[in-house]
Specification:
It is built from nine helices and 14 strands. β10, α5 and β11 form a beta-alpha-beta unit. The protein is elongated. It has 336 residues and is an alpha/beta fold. It has two domains: 171 residues, 3-Layer(aba) Sandwich (Rossmann fold), CATH 3.40.50.1170; 138 residues, Rossmann fold (3-Layer(aba) Sandwich). It has a six-stranded mixed beta sheet, sandwiched between helices. A four-stranded parallel beta sheet has the order 10-11-12-13, sandwiched between helices.
Length: 336
């Protein structure tokens, strides 16, 4: 870890820069002017040399999609390789902040600089907002030294980008790392196919929680819609309706077609261990790959990065089993 000499502030939109309208809060451009005004008002505030760029148009993060992930990836890489920045602060809406942090963690593997995402629960112009505390708190964390990779700063805490999730819709401490057990095997080396330079394409993905009464016809309709990868949120340690032969056959059919099936736990403190129960073994035998302790955000972002790189289903499954950035293996000194 090292201190930063040239920071890129990248603004994508979100509540932190929103302004009021007759329809409610909407994204607004030109956040750099407000940042300059705040710095002028806080003469004691130190900022490293910084540049500013914003995605156009800025968006409400509720509208986030894969194309936006790719645009943010491109802007971050340009900041490092073209502008010479050695750190990036990405301002982002909170609704999908954890999804973007996880996705970028996989899209920027090997970049070698710290990227910190933050946002706010209230717009920066609102009295009592958490916007400036989060923004300057993230800058201060970077100034003290942050390891290369993607992180999320919120409510006074620096979180792992592929482990964080949003737990609250009003509290300033809305984000946390879920205490999920992780037993994945760390990848020995990063393959060229997953390096940040690898161009990605949009991928058809889906997330589905198991629930009592889920019908095989519903699952088959989803799997038959052209999805290339499915994150199936299982019960507990990876169980599901093992007595529904038709549902299990729908999974087998999809896997034979080349759809990647990844199972994670619905439980905030859960992880997948298919061998614990026969009901879990049935899902595994039907083609579901265990996602260990990955969060929904990490599972979706990792599937996108792998399949979007053009990897085959078998290649994707291989790397899903390998920990790439701390998403499914405990890291020294990291919170669980």
């Amino acid at each position: 870890m090292s201190t930063i000499n040239h920071l890129m502030v990248l603004y994508s939109g979100g509540t932190i820069g929103m302004q009021g309208s007759d329809r409610g809060l909407v994204p607004a451009a030109g956040f750099d002017a407000r940042l300059h005004e705040r710095l002028a008002a806080e003469s004691q505030r130190c900022m490293p040399p910084w540049r500013y760029r914003e995605l156009s148009p800025p968006i409400d993060s509720a509208n986030m999609n894969q194309q936006h992930w790719l645009a943010m990836r491109d802007a971050i890489v340009a900041a490092v390789e073209e502008d010479g920045c050695d750190a990036v602060l990405l301002l982002h809406g909170t609704d999908t902040l954890a999804y973007s942090a996880a996705a970028l963690g996989f899209l920027l593997l090997g970049l070698g600089v710290p990227v910190v995402l933050t946002g706010a629960m209230l717009p920066a112009d609102v009295p009592g907002s958490d916007a400036w505390d989060n923004l300057f708190g993230a800058v201060d964390a970077l100034a003290r030294g942050v390891a290369p990779g993607v992180h999320l700063y919120f409510g006074g805490r620096l979180l792992h980008g592929a482990r964080a999730t949003k737990l609250g819709s009003t509290t300033f401490g809305a984000f946390a790392e879920l205490p999920r057990q992780r037993h994945g095997e760390r990848a020995a080396a990063l393959p060229a196919a997953l390096d940040y330079r690898r161009i990605r394409q949009p991928v058809s993905l889906a997330v589905l929680p198991l629930f009592p009464g889920l019908q095989a016809a519903q699952l088959r309709a989803l799997l038959g819609s052209g999805v290339q990868g499915l994150v199936l949120e299982c019960y507990g340690s990876g169980t599901g309706p093992s007595d529904d032969a038709e549902l299990l056959e729908a999974l087998r059919e999809a896997r034979r077609r080349g759809t990647v099936l990844l199972g994670i736990s619905q439980c905030p403190h859960g992880h997948v261990a298919f061998g614990t129960y026969a009901a879990g073994n049935a899902l595994s035998e039907a083609g579901l790959l265990g996602g260990d302790g990955m969060t929904r955000e990490a599972a979706l972002g990792k599937l996108f990065a792998l399949l979007g790189a053009g990897l085959s289903a078998d290649e994707t499954e291989h790397w899903l089993r390998q920990d790439l950035c701390g998403e499914c293996a405990d890291l020294p000194g990291a919170s669980a």
